Amino acid sequence: EYAIAQFASLEGRQAGEFYTPSSIVQTLVEILEPYEGRVYDPCCGAGGMFVQSAKFVESHQGRVNDLSIYGQESNANTWKLAQMNLAIHGLEGDLGQGAADTFFEDQHPSMRADFILANPPFNLKDWGGDKLIEDARWKYGIPPEGNANYAWMQHMIYHLSPRGKMGLVLANGSLSTSGKEGEIRENIVRDDLVECIIAMPDRLFYSTGISVSLWIFNKDKKQKDKVLFLDGRSIGHMVDRAHRDLSQEDIKKIADTYKKYTKGEDVEELGYAHVAELKEIEENNFVLTPGRYVGLEEVEDDGEPFDEKMERLTNELGELFVESNKLEELIKEQLGEIGYGV
User: Fold this and answer.
1) Where are the alpha helices (DSSP H) in 120-277?
2) DSSP label at 143?
3) Which terminus of the chain has fewer CB atoms gathered within 10 Å of its CB, N or C?
């Protein structure tokens, strides 16, 4: 794990496809507590989510053999790295027959996981969405062709067991996007799957400057029609001029707040934690940015670099233009059919 982290540091952006910072993985594992059952990562990279899950079980005097590991990875070299990482840690897992595209060659189509942990590629553009319009996984809406964030999310929900929990790492932009993504987000929130949103501090990744949030989903929520918002942007410490890390105390604070919330305890803390009911989320147009809910007066910053944000917004605008043109042609066609051609 140390070697992989050092390689990620040296490789920078090129390492983003296989390495998730240990502090993020630990935070997800401490929240989800995967003691036993099926653990799945549809974009597993080097397998860090699996290794950390096993460490969690061992640290709580559990049996690692009680975990069944399922994963998938599209990059052939990274897939081999994941196999090696599992073997080094004495773990067995089903990562499919080889490297394969998760959207087009699902290696575990009938598997339903008790725990899903994933850090998919941020804002993936060319994912082939135009060829998957009728896919059964899109229960909450068809993801936009120019961004796979909500395709990953729905793929994971599709593979979640009836009482399953999952943790997903996404760029902050996914919390507030409009259009198709906004509609999908609203549908998922209304279906009461989102349990907690955690805004993380910047500079945690070696591969990108994009700020991220952790999405926690639970098909068996105890606090119905509510979402816990945590703003952790101010936690952590700089390990060098470019990178930040979280201490064990930082991770414990986040996990403990989540656990207290699920038990029904009061966790309200101005500027850090707020429990929002569905009505409040509706009033905010289903934007899930924690800073909007926890009581901070500062201007919200999603941490997305300007160039990347402009490219994303331009793609979204282009999709809206396409939809508009289709609608215009449909109206012309229907008017022509009744003798009022335009």
Assistant:
1) 149-158, 179-190, 248-262
2) P
3) C
> Each residue of 255-306: pLDDT tens digit?
999 999 999 999 999 999 999 999 999 999 999 999 999 996 444 555 566 6
How far apart are the C-alpha atoms of 331 and 342, rounded to whole Å?
A: 9
Q: Which ranges in the chain belong to alpha helices (H)? A: 2-11, 22-32, 48-59, 76-88, 149-158, 179-190, 248-262, 278-283, 306-337
Distances (CA, A) of 200 to 21, 100, 276: 12, 30, 19
Closest CA to 120 of 93, 132, 102: 102
**What tokens were used for 6?**
């050092």
- Is the CB of residue 66 less than 8 Å from the CB of residue 94? no
Length of the chain: 342
Give CA–CA dist 109/70, Å, rounded: 11
The two tokens of residue 141 are: 């809406």
pTM comes to: 0.83
Residue pLDDT, tens place only, 26-73: 999 999 999 899 999 999 988 989 999 999 999 988 899 999 999 999
Q: What's the rounded Cα separation, in Å, for the pair 154 and 191?
A: 13
